[in-house]
Design brief:
By secondary structure, the chain is of the alpha/beta class. Helices cover 26% and strands 37% of the residues. It is built from 4 helices and 10 strands; from the N terminus they run ββαβββαβαβαβββ. The protein has helices at 32-45, 87-96, 109-121, 136-145; strands at 3-11, 21-26, 50-52, 67-70, 76-82, 101-106, 129-134, 149-158, 163-168, 171-181. A 10-stranded mixed sheet has the order 2-1-8-9-10-7-6-5-4-3, sandwiched between helices. α2 (87-96) links the parallel β5 and β6 (101-106). The chain is globular and about 45 Å long. 31% of the residues are buried.
């Protein structure tokens, strides 16, 4: 591991009772954008038992999810891939974890549109995947602000707006996003 980033969390959103702190390890060669996607994904998808890059200890599932929620029998019910993800991998994930919601978190709507085009070309099963696309310029700004120690004050996420509102390292963000279903 080439480093770690700690995030001290505080939430005013009663539906997201965030833990006080999370740590995201940075692997050799891993970009800050990928770290940013994992931490934004953790905030957006937060629910009980969500985990970051945890081993599933299941030989039939050869992948490590970026974010996952396991049920009480340790089966994935939520699987989130952050950033670039091969379509072949998405297809295998859908087969290996048939009960799980599968999401891909992307840095922009353009990236999401490109992914959907490839998914369509490769004829992935419809009504199985969800894609969360962030506003690229704000995402780049957030990625550039990540330090080894970070503070987040989560205010709210309104899917109807749709935007996430939070203070990150003393800078206020109203981060718009789009959700696509495939």
């Amino acid at each position: 591991m080439s480093g770690k980033h700690s995030f001290v969390l505080e939430s005013r959103d009663h539906q997201r009772r965030l833990p006080q702190k999370i740590i995201i390890g940075r692997q050799e060669g891993e970009s800050m954008e990928r770290i940013a996607l994992k931490f934004i994904g953790f905030l957006y998808f937060f629910r009980e038992r969500i985990q970051i890059e945890t081993s599933l200890h299941n030989d039939s599932i050869p992948f490590t999810p970026d974010l996952v929620q396991l049920d009480y029998e340790l089966r994935p019910v939520l699987w989130v891939e952050c950033g670039d993800c091969e379509v072949a991998k998405l297809k295998k994930i859908a087969i290996k974890v048939p009960e799980a919601e599968i999401w891909v978190l992307t840095r922009s709507s353009e990236t999401a549109a490109n992914l959907i085009r490839v998914m369509t070309r490769e004829k992935l099963k419809k009504n199985r995947y969800h894609i969360l696309a962030l506003d690229e310029s704000m995402f780049v700004e957030i990625s550039g602000m990540i330090k080894s120690r970070n503070e987040i004050f989560w205010f709210k996420c309104n899917p109807d707006s749709p935007e996430m509102q939070f203070d990150f390292n003393s800078v206020w963000f109203e981060l718009p996003f789009q959700v696509f279903h495939y």
